[in-house]
Every structure is written in C-alpha cells, then in structure tokens.
Amino acid sequence: MFHTIIIVGNLGRDPEMRYLPSGQPVTTMNIATSRKYTASDGQLVDETIWFRVSVFGKQAEACNQYLQKGRSVLVEGRIKPDPATGGPKIWTRQDGTPGASFEVVAATVRFLGRGGGEGPAAGGDFAETPSSPTEDDIPF
Predict the structure, then answer these.
(1) Secondary structure of residue 40 in the 3-state scheme
(2) Residue 23's domain is classified under what CATH number?
(3) How many Å apart are CA 18 and CA 28, to the nearest integer?
(4) Coil, helix or strand for 126?
(5) How many domains does the chain have?
C-alpha cells in the first residue's frame, strides 16, 4: 500500500530546525492552504487547512536557510497520523474552539514564487531520499 499528498501553500511562520539525537537535521514548517468557493446558499466560503510539515536531512537545512514566513511552497510527502486518533492532531484553542492540523513528512519541497532572502530561484527543488527516522527520533 502507498499514499502520497501534494500540498501548495504559504508558510505561516519561519521554519524551525532542530537536530535529532543521531545528528540528522529536521525542519518543521506550518503551511496553510486555502480555497474560496461559493456554497449552495450563495455564501462565499474561505476555507483554510493547516499542515505541519517535517523535512529531514540536507533538504531540512535548505528549507531552514531559504524559506521564511509567507513564502509559497509545494510539498510532496506522506501523511503521518496522530497515534492517539489515527487522524489529524486535534486540540482545543484558547478560545475553546476545536482545532486540528495534519502532519506531513516531506519527501520533496519545491520553493515557489519570490520571497524575501537570497537563495535558489523559484522552482528550486530539494528532493532527496529521506532516511526513515523512527518514531522516537521525531522531536514532536
């Protein structure tokens, strides 16, 4: 069995890089995807879905160096379910409303559009075959 997900969105904040006990770099990014459509009752609906993306190895270092809040990216990877629910991570926001985010382990990150900072031009592709870290290696 196999699954893959492709998302295109914008970073909600600057990437954060850490190192696993093995010394392998891992960068986490929060990416928002959105779409607008008109519902059957004529109301304009603005739908936003948040993804928490983990990137490993050299690709993690490139993402940490060249990406920043607001930058558009394309991510191809796999969904990592929450062990407790088998689905997205669910929590309660400070205002009492429920929230959820989908966890994605990236295989490929492609930088889109122009953003601040120096680095690869639009379309920079940082794909590598990630070594599969164990559940204990992932820092969240």
Answers:
(1) coil
(2) 2.40.50.140
(3) 8
(4) coil
(5) 1
Cβ(55)–Cβ(29) below 8 Å: yes
3-state secondary structure of 136: helix
Q: Is the dihedral angle over the CA atoms 3, 123, 37, 50 positive or is it negative?
A: positive
Residue-wise pLDDT for 6-57, tens only, equals: 999 999 999 999 999 999 999 999 999 999 999 999 999 999 898 999 999 9
Q: Could you count the other beta carbons within 10 Å of the beta carbon of residue 106? A: 26
Phi-psi region for residue 97, left (φ > 0), alpha (ψ -120 to 50) or beta? beta
Give the separation between CA 104 and CA 137, rounded to whole angstroms: 15
Q: Which residue has the tokens 């295989």?
A: 107
Neighbours of 122 (CB within 10 A): 11
| Residue range(s) defining the domain that contains residue 30 | 5-137
Q: Annotate 52-117 with three-state secondary structure.
A: EEEEEHHHHHHHHHHCCCCCEEEEEEEEECCCCCCCCEEEECCCCCEEEEEEEEEEEEEEECCCCC
